[in-house]
Amino acid sequence: MSKEKTNFGNKLAQGFTKGVLNITVPLLNHRIVPFRWQAIGGIVTHKKLENSVLIHCENGFIEVKIITPSIWRVRAFHDTLPKYHKSWASREPDFNLKIKTVQEYGSLTIKEDKNVSSKNDLIIKVSEVDSTITFERINGDILHKDSEPISMSKRGSWIKTKKIALKKEYHVGFGEKTGKLIKNGRKMIFWNTDQTAYTVREDPLYQSEPLQISLREDGTAFGIFYDNYRYSVIKLEKTSTSKVNYYTEKGPLCYYVFAGPTLKDVSKQIGELNGKLPLPPKWVLGHHQSRWSYYPEEKVREVARNFREKEIPCDSIHLDIDYMDGFRCFTWNKERFPNPQKMVADLRDDGFKLIIMTDPGLKADPEWTIYQNCVAKDYHCKLANGNPYLGKVWPGKCIFPDFTSPAVRVWWGKLYKDYVELGIEGFWIDMAEPSIFDIRRTAPFEVQHNMDGQPESHQYAHNVYGNAFAIATREGLDVLRKNKRTFIFGRTAYSGIQRYASTWTGDNYSTWKHLQQSIPMVLSMGLSGQPFVAVDIGGFTFDCKAELLTRWYQTGIFYPFCRNHSANATKPQEPWVFGEETEKIIKKTIEFRYMLLPYLYTILWEASKDGLPMMRPLFMEFPTDKETYNEKWHNSQFMVGDKLLIAPVLTKLGKNQKAVTKKIYLPEGRWFDYWTQEYLSGGKEITREVTINQLPLFVKAGSTLPIGPIVPFVEKASEHPITLAIYPDNEIQGLAYFDDGDTKEFEEGNYNLLTIRGNDTPKKLSIDILQSGKITDLPLTNEILHLRVHTKKTPDEIKVNDNIAQKDFETENLSWKISDDMKHYTIVIKIPKFPMDIQVKYK
Ligand code: MIG
Questions:
Q1: Does the C-beta of 491 come closer than 6 Å to ligand 1?
Q2: How many Å apart are CA 42 and CA 58, to the nearest integer?
Q3: Does 146 sit in the ligand 1 pocket, CB within 6 Å?
Q4: 282 CA distance to ligand 1 centroid (A)?
Q5: What b/e string do you get for 725-751 counting C-beta neighbours within 10 Å, with b at 16 or more?
Q6: What is the pLDDT of residue 1?
């Protein structure tokens, strides 16, 4: 059969499968929320312990516990509550706090017991009459209150809580969801599902993060994490008082409240509870090229060669399932890849790190040792009757290791040994919903899981299978790779996934709508605790076209994790396949990302330290600017860190059109247009005519951005000097973080952090650079520091630590010069010493 015909056949089959699955998957996995409920009832008695209070209600129990001064936990059930809340997401920090309770005005009032209260403290009131709960700030401002009592289903094990706010609120977060960034009016289901290519209205997708963040236009925010991995539903009613209804199929109810009071605080509080991303190696910030699948070896080498010959930066090539021998994980197809060792080594020499895929399903092949071992140790999932559960995936019939068992995780982790010895540095884990070629698209409800010794059936354990798979992979590789940082990414998640793996948004389409959709999706995932996320650049399903690919790259270089990937039956979409013109623009676009690497690395490090996302909605940085809540903007532009605003073009050029008219909102403050090099004042809408080779980008005035050279791959950057680009304003600030990029040494303080602060006045610019961390020089930047000041003013005198810089004498240790276009000047400092004090006098 000709290739064309196969492709056509494939597409037809894909379309057909999609249609059938669209009907069956929701139907078979759907649950009916019960009709008959019993309320928990009024308070009978309560018992105060050190940091919690246990309330005995007429029909159940409620427990309120303080975790940190700004994180509280509530649990409820009709039975006695288990002593510990066993979570697959949260790890409660140990703060050793005390609480105080008072019975007054018909409520049991609970607060932290301390002498001095702070204005962010919460007070919790539980009504004596019906046990409805109110969370308020110390100033009396109500965050939310139960609009009806916590209730349990009369039949089955459901539990629900309904909350109401008293002010206008915008609800964001909820993990990987389609649609707009603000989710008011939406009903969302939490049940990990491989929809095999999703439309922009699909729900649920691969991940479940029942995490709500509520924002108000006065700039305040709080969050609620409904920590239950079982099938659940969140319904955000379309009312001005923002009702939120939460239902889960199996109690107890457990939720955490994050006090804020700002969105950034909530983000950090989520990180404190649900964990942060372990800092990945620096090279993962480079450009990744993927495809389902590159094979044989010669094809992989050809892709690599193309990148180097065309001088398009690239750090990694991904090997999808077809590298394996008959889809058996941890094996190589010897015909396609006769000598993986040599291939990995050669590519590594050329700066390419290979990322390989593993899937959870293991081919039921009695001749294969890994299968034999898994069965011999009894590590696979079983049906209720004890027989192995067999499900069909790529290899045919498979068994599924039960990653929810600690012993299985240890066993699995060790399987990566050969890959590590081969020199594989990145790991892609897929299909862990688990996705199975079954009418349900996943395992049947009756399949049994160990769940760390508290067995549950798949009906309940389903949403954590993916996290358990990621934990097994992470823990195994951490042991095998010792002091090296490891990069793992997957598709499936429950909250807390960021501790173990990064993720991407799965099988999107090569359409303009999906390009636009990627922005609110990545932002939502970032707000929910996942700072390092990718979207298939160019789109996965369907053929991509030149213009779409170009625009997608202009957005995609700002995704935290930047990867081009596409499905097997589609046309290739590497940067060069659409001819020279497109290639040239995409090359420039990718180069731009490499130039920004020192900045991106700094915010990646911040993300791993504090839990803040890399890509942020405008209202995270400008919460008191009301216009940032306008949906016109937050689905189409975003911040990268706190300094860059990107407003990518998300629509096609019209016929005979040379440029797309793009409306952009610049929040309050002053902005520097990266391309015109003009300063603009914000708090207003502007318009740009954007041609195909442009991407609207603005720097917040008062920023310093660490900027690097354009290099073929990340590690090369250390051979070049570093530039601090300064965009003066009354107040100037910024950070630049450096370390070896590869080991965990930074955890011992082996890093170099520059903190830059300054002031600009008409006659004078002063900058202070403080250095912290054990690495005190800049060995990673060729011992040269460039300070590039973006102003049209001409310096009269420049002093660095009291030494006068020489104008236009680049041979000197300290010199400066004005750019040809007169739009900036650069101070060149050889062998920089910190602390550094820079004083510039203007004429
Ligand atoms: O059933 O490994 O989302 O990125 O290329 C499809 C093949 C399985 C799904 C992933 C996609 C990957 C594909 N995988």
A1: yes
A2: 6
A3: no
A4: 25
A5: bbbbbeebebbbbbbbbebbebeeeeb
A6: 36
Residue 760 near residue 728, CB atoms below 8 Å: yes
Tell me how far the alpha carbon of residue 362 lies from the centroid of ligand 1, in angstroms: 16
Paired tokens of 11: 């597409």
Report the separation in Å between the CA atom of 88 and the middle of ligand 1, taken as the mean of its atom positions: 25
**292 Cβ below 6 A of ligand 1:** yes
Nearest-atom index, ligand 1, CA of 291 = 5
Which pLDDT belongs to residue 23? Answer: 79
- Residue 663 near residue 693 (C-beta atoms within 8 A): no
Catalytic (active site) residue 430: yes
- Report DSSP letters for 500-519, one per residue: T-EEE--S-BSSHHHHHHHH
Q: Cα separation of 228 and 247, whole Å? A: 10
Question: Is-contact 456 157, C-beta < 8 A?
Answer: no
- Is the torsion defined by CA of 312, 315, 320, 324 positive or negative? positive
Alpha-carbon span 304 to 330, nearest angstrom? 23
Cβ(469) to ligand 1 under 6 A?
Answer: no
User: How far is residue 90's CA from residue 645's CA, in Å, rounded to a whole number?
Assistant: 32
How many angstroms separate the CA atoms of 50 and 767, rounded?
Answer: 49
Closest residue CA from atom 3 of ligand 1: 506
Cα 397 from chain centre: 33
615-616: strand order across its sheet? 615-616, 638-640, 644-646, 697-700, 670-673, 679-681
337-345 long-range contacts, Cβ below 8 Å, gap at least 24?
337/295, 337/296, 337/297, 338/297, 339/297, 340/422, 341/422, 341/423, 343/297, 343/300, 343/301, 344/422, 344/423, 344/424, 345/423
Catalytic residue among 146, 297, 430, 574: 430
Give 686-730 pLDDT, tens digit per residue: 999 999 999 999 999 999 999 999 999 999 988 888 999 999 999
In the residue annotation, 507 being an active-site residue is answered as yes
Q: List, in sequence order, every residue forming a beta bridge with 46; answer none if it has no partner.
A: 55
Phi, psi of 440 (to 5 degrees): -85, -15
CA of 431 to the centre of ligand 1 (A): 7
Nearest CA to ligand 1 atom 8: 431
Enumerate residues 6+ apart whose C-beta is below 8 A from 785. 721, 722, 723, 724, 778, 828, 829, 832
Strand arrangement of the beta sheet that strand 43-48 belongs to? 43-48, 52-57, 60-68, 71-77, 253-258, 221-226, 211-215, 170-173
673 is catalytic: no
Residue located via tokens 């039956």: 569
pTM: predicted TM-score of the whole model, two decimal places: 0.97
Percent of the chain with pLDDT strictly greater than 90: 90
Indicate whether residue 112 lines ligand 1 (CB < 6 A): no
Return the bridge partners of 207, or none.
493
State the distance from the centre of ligand 1 to the C-alpha of 9, rounded, in angstroms.
Answer: 18
Which of 204, 212, 247 minimizes the C-alpha distance to 228? 247
Helix 597-610 and helix 263-274, axial crossing angle in degrees, nearest 10: 70
Q: Which atom of ligand 1 is nearest to the CA of 568?
A: 5
The answer to whether 718 and 782 are in contact (CB under 8 A) is yes
The answer to whether the beta carbons of residues 225 and 495 sit under 8 Å apart is yes
SS3 content of the chain, % helix, strand, coil (to 5): 25, 30, 45
Going by C-alpha positions, the residue among 232, 213, 220, 214 that lies closest to residue 274 is 213
Q: Could you report the per-residue pLDDT of 151-210, keeping only the tens digit for each?
A: 999 998 999 999 998 889 999 999 999 999 999 999 999 999 998 788 888 999 999 999
Question: 67-77: per-residue pLDDT in tens?
Answer: 999 999 999 99
Q: Decide: 430 in ligand 1 pocket, CB within 6 A.
A: yes
